[in-house]
Every structure is written in C-alpha cells, then in structure tokens.
Amino acid sequence: MYYLYYVIRVKHKTNRVMNISELSNLSVAELRNINQIVVELIKQKRNIESLQKKVGLSVGMKVIVNHSKLRGKELWVNKINRTKATLSVKSGGVFIVPISLIEY
Which of 29, 31, 77, 89 could be bridged to 93 by S-S, CB 3.0 to 4.6 A? Predict the structure, then answer.
C-alpha cells in the first residue's frame, strides 16, 4: 500500500510530516486552510517559471512550441504579451501561444 506524505506548515503549528490517515483526522476548516496554502504555492511557482521564460524571449527570436498542432514548425516571435506571445511561420500563419508552451 502506498502512503502519501505531506509537509504542512500551519501558522499555529510547527512543521510536521503527515500521512493520509492523519490528514483524515483534521477538520474541514484545517483541510481548507492547507489547500489554500498549497494552491498559493503552486501559483507562485508557476508565476516564477513563466517570468523566467518570458525574460529569455525577445522579438525576432526563433522558437518551437510544445503542442501537437505546431510540432516541427519553426516560429518567430512577433510580440510578447503578459501571458501569451504572438508567433508567426514563414508561410505567413500567425499563432497566439501561451508563454508556458514556448521552448527556445
């Protein structure tokens, strides 16, 4: 049987490792609090990753996209927005792609 272990830091408690059986003993309010903390951490990590990727992009740069529709195509960056970039193909096609899918 597999057990999932979580490290949880709650304001009124110290760091401790909990398994599923211990998590099942918590109240709904405590579980919601833990969920909010985890969701915030995920959002922060995604934001940092996208900012790092965005800093490396520049207009005119040749990139590829991690998507089945654009597999094997070389694209050039036309414009960089907050969350998406406008990319073009030599043949004239233009695609608006999330920055997270762009690889360079």
Answer: 89
Q: How far apart are the first and last CA of the chain?
A: 41
At 58 the three-state DSSP class reads: coil
List the structure tokens of 61.
């740069």
Supply the pTM of this predicted model: 0.59
- Residue 96 is part of which domain span? 57-103
**Single-letter amino acid, residue 12:** H
Is residue 86 helix, strand or coil? strand
Q: Are 100 and 50 in contact (CB under 8 A)?
A: yes
Per-residue pLDDT tens over the stretch 16-61: 777 778 888 889 998 899 899 999 999 999 888 888 888 899 999 9
> Does 82 lie in the same domain as 62?
yes
